[in-house]
Every structure is written in structure tokens, then in C-alpha cells.
Design goal:
By secondary structure, the chain is α+β, with helices and mostly antiparallel strands. 38% of the residues lie in helices and 14% in strands. The protein has helices at 26-33, 61-71, 88-112, 120-127, 146-153, 156-159, and strands at residues 14-18, 39-44, 54-58, 75-76, 79-80, 82-85. The strands form 2 sheets. The protein has a 4-stranded antiparallel sheet, covered by helices on one side. Strands 4-5 form a two-stranded antiparallel ribbon. The radius of gyration is 28 Å and the shape is elongated. The termini are far apart.
């Protein structure tokens, strides 16, 4: 009986690493993960949605298990790493699930019509001018009324001064 048969079904040679610093280099990852055994490959995420992640593939599954056990939660470059086993089957399921949810959303939109909040037809109604708000009050000089905006955003001690300024009174 081989050692791999005693491990759980999710254990494999490929590890998925999250919460990496954007400044980490592949050499630093090789040094860190190489402590636990020979590495076949390190792939770092470079796209905006994959930055801070990497895949580390070991030669042996036991080395990957040891690295996952030791490095999950490890503080590396002032960040706590999240090290998981790569599960391609799970990723496929999430893609299928996403497609199913999109189809379900489209069915709901058709069923509820324009009153549904995320329906495109509601956006076209707003764009046509049916739900237009009245224009903001203007001062004599043609600027938007800054007093209205200032009352909402400025600190209280500045708001007390507004009535004394002739343009804002």
C-alpha cells in the first residue's frame, strides 16, 4: 500500500497559496516552499484578480502535505499565508454553479418583468427621463449650492460659519 492511499482525497502535489504580498518574487516562493521538498513549478498570479496568489507544485505528494500543514497560517512578509490543496474539480463545479445561477436570474427577470430591481428595462425607464430629479438649486453666480453639500460633509464648527458667508446664506 503506497503512502498516497493513506492521505485524504483532497491531498495532491499542487498547492494553492493566497494572501501573498504583491511584491513577492518567484525566487522567494521557491526558497520558502523549497524547505519541504523539491518543487516542480511555481506559478504566480499576475492579473488583477489573481494577484497575491500562486500555485506551487511539488515532486512528491508527501512534501506538499508537509508544506501545507506547516505554511498554512505562516507569517511571510507580514502577511499570514493561506495554503490549500488545489482542487480542480471544485473549481469546475463553481463555474457550472455560476452558469446555473445566471440562468436562474434570467428566469426570475422574465417572470417579474420591469418591476424587478435589477431588470434592464428599469434602467431604460430612468434613462428616458420618467424618474428625473429636479435640478439642484443654483446660486446667483451659477455654482451649485455648496451650502447644501457642506451641511452634509463639513465638520460642525465649519457648518456654523456657513450662514455668515453671504454667498451661502
Amino acid at each position: 500500500m503506497s503512502r498516497a492511499n493513506k492521505l485524504g482525497p483532497e491531498v495532491n502535489r499542487a498547492l494553492f497559496v493566497k494572501n501573498l504580498s504583491y511584491n513577492v518574487t518567484p525566487e522567494e516562493l521557491f526558497d520558502l516552499f523549497g524547505r519541504y521538498g523539491p518543487i516542480r513549478q511555481v506559478r504566480q498570479g499576475i492579473a488583477s484578480n489573481t494577484k497575491g496568489t500562486a500555485f506551487v507544485v511539488y515532486e512528491d505528494v508527501m512534501d506538499a502535505k508537509q508544506a501545507c500543514d506547516k505554511l498554512n497560517g505562516f507569517n511571510f512578509q507580514n502577511r499570514y499565508l493561506v495554503v490549500l490543496y488545489h482542487q480542480p474539480d471544485k473549481m469546475l463545479k463553481t463555474k457550472d454553479d455560476l452558469e446555473a445561477r445566471k440562468e436562474h436570474l434570467e428566469r426570475i427577470k422574465k417572470q417579474h418583468g420591469p418591476s424587478f430591481p435589477h431588470s434592464p428595462s428599469r434602467k431604460t425607464k430612468a434613462a428616458s427621463g420618467a424618474d428625473k430629479k429636479p435640478p439642484k438649486p443654483m446660486l446667483k453666480k451659477g455654482r451649485p449650492d455648496i451650502a447644501i453639500h457642506a451641511r452634509k460633509t463639513l465638520p460642525h464648527f465649519v457648518r456654523k460659519l456657513l450662514p455668515t458667508v453671504p454667498e451661502c446664506a
